Amino acid sequence: MIVNVNGKNYPSDVVIRNVEIYDDRSEEIYYSLPDYPIYINKTYLSLFPGFEFPGHWHEDIEITVILEGEMIYTVNGEKIHMKEGQGIFVNSRQLHSNYSVMRKECVYICMRLNPSLLCVSSSFEYEFVMPVIRCTDLPYIFLDSQVLWQNRVTELIKNIYELKNTKTLPLRTQTAFFEIWALLWENLTFKNNGSQKESADLDITRNMVDFIQKNYAEKLSLADIAEAGAVGQSKCCKLFARYFGKSPVVYLNQYRINKSIELLKNTDLTITEISLMTGFSGASYYAETFKKYLGKTPSEYRHI
Question: What's the pTM?
Answer without folding.
Answer: 0.79
